[in-house]
Amino acid sequence: MAIRLQGVSKIFMRSGRSRRPLYRELLNIRARLARDGGKHVLRDVNLEVPDGSRVGVIGRNGAGKSTLLRVIAGIYEPSAGAVSVDGRVCCFLEPGAGAAPALPVRDNVFLYAALAGLGYRETLQSLPRILDFCSLSDQEYSWVEHLSFGMQQRLFMSIQLEVMRLKRAEVFLFDEFLMGVDKSFRLRVEDALTHYPSERQIVLHASHDHELMLRTCPNAIFIDDAGVRRFGPTADVLDLYRNG
Fold it and tell me: Which end of the chain is more exposed for a tag (fewer CB within 10 A), N or C?
């Protein structure tokens, strides 16, 4: 299995002020969790995702979808349990993360591509393809901060898809990655998600766009009340989500 979660829980401590020094807070973090209870965002999650999977992550707001992806990505340490990921992870979980708004589009492509694992020569060769995919070929030297939110989303998603096309990562994690983009670009991304991934690459993405899930993901995970309620065929999972 390329992704395996065993008994994974994630607890966020409840907010509250303390007069104790920070180092004492860190030393007593377990005691605080026991005393205050904290909030279980994930609770005893067991999950196995094999190579080549295309999986949607479904759930209501606050159910734990984004936290699950961040735990798999290694951004969050689990409070309990073990996470195993076989392969390099490339993620698009926060709009604009890693961007430099005060730099031109071209510079942002090189910066973001480097963060995603592409070398300079690869990026130079891929630059025309990336800019063409997001319809920014004529704005290569425009400042990113002058682009609309939707165009910024286009740019950074295009880089991620190029990483996928070049097979430079094995696991791709997306969180509401088509938010703010128009229909024409959505269709281009859907087509890329259908043709780009190899037989070994895994794609997980969280979204409230269930029609997108049905078109691009044979299987889905239903996150409910901090746990995995169902992992199976997308149509069946959506029926449970809507009616259960």
Answer: C
